[in-house]
Amino acid sequence: MAPLRFALPNKGSLSAPAAQMLAEAGYRVNRSGRELIVADPANDVQFFFLRPRDIAVYVGEGSLDVGITGRDLLLDSTVSAKEILPLGFGRASFYFASKPGGIHDAAGLEGKRIATSYPNLVEAHLADLGIKAHLVRLDGAVETAVELGVADAIADVVETGITLKTSGLETFGSPILKSEAVLIQGDTVADNGDSVRAVEILHRRLQGVLIARRYVILDFDCPVEAQEEAFKLVPGIESPTVSPLAREGWVAVRSLVPRDDAPFIMDELWRVGARAILVSSLDTCRI
Q1: Are 114 and 134 within 8 A, CB to CB?
Q2: pTM of this structure
Q3: In whole angstroms, what is the distance from residue 135 CA to residue 153 CA?
Q4: What is d(CA 125, CA 153) in angstroms, rounded to the nearest whole number?
Q5: Distant-in-sequence, close-in-space partners of 31: CB < 8 Å, separation ≥ 6
Q6: What would the pLDDT profile of 113-162 be if each residue is shown by its tens digit?
Q7: Tell me: the pLDDT tens digits for 211-258?
Q8: Distance between CA 2 and CA 151 in Å, rounded?
Q9: What does the record give as the reaction this protein catalyses (predicted)?
């Protein structure tokens, strides 16, 4: 059985979070130095560390089975690799931007010059809008293109907007794309039963990590007469787990609750009579 060939970003904002997520899912991805290939024999996986922009190409061409990259980079590559799981980190929006008081909507881009590092993505978006414009392809930062007279507007990933403001630009119109890190798969995986099974396991493990990041375990003691009201607050996935306590008239309850809602649920549980309310984090899970 050949190992699953997995492409990971070798640098940039996606690199560390991708490695951390895989570690939480039980994979061994640590590099002692700047190795380009790391083997994980326990999970029968080989990790290849590549430029984020190249990952979709390697996966789409079938050289590698799966990879983690940005949705924006995947779509700009125009290869046949497909997104199979959004991973919840590396979120950013893709916008048009220009000088304040200049172009203020997408229609104003007709016939204009647009600088971008994502020409295929932008060209497809403009075609959907029925707009014809001249694309100026630049590698790396494009924020200075308008100031230097190379373009009338830019199209780029916007995380905080600080860099755009510093360059005297502002976004306009609706976002071209909402991007984040995604797990991608090549078409050749479907032709190999071993790879299909390995990807299914990977998919379940990463989903387990995503769920664990969204939920916490809530434990509390509750008077029997208040349990129905408490259960409305903590319905759980299937239902709460309930165990009788040595103290007559009381039960112990355990349930999964959304992490962001936990403080408010604790307040309400206390109000209805629950006590000894504890919150525990999850490492991973299957639901």
Answers
A1: yes
A2: 0.88
A3: 10
A4: 15
A5: 38, 49
A6: 999 999 999 999 999 999 999 999 998 789 899 999 999 999 998 877 78
A7: 999 999 999 999 999 999 999 999 998 999 999 999 999 999 999 999
A8: 49
A9: 1-(5-phospho-beta-D-ribosyl)-ATP + diphosphate = 5-phospho-alpha-D-ribose 1-diphosphate + ATP
pLDDT digits over 187-212, tens only? 888 767 788 899 999 999 999 999 99
d(CA 248, CA 244): 8
The three-point CA angle 45-50-53 to 5° equals 125
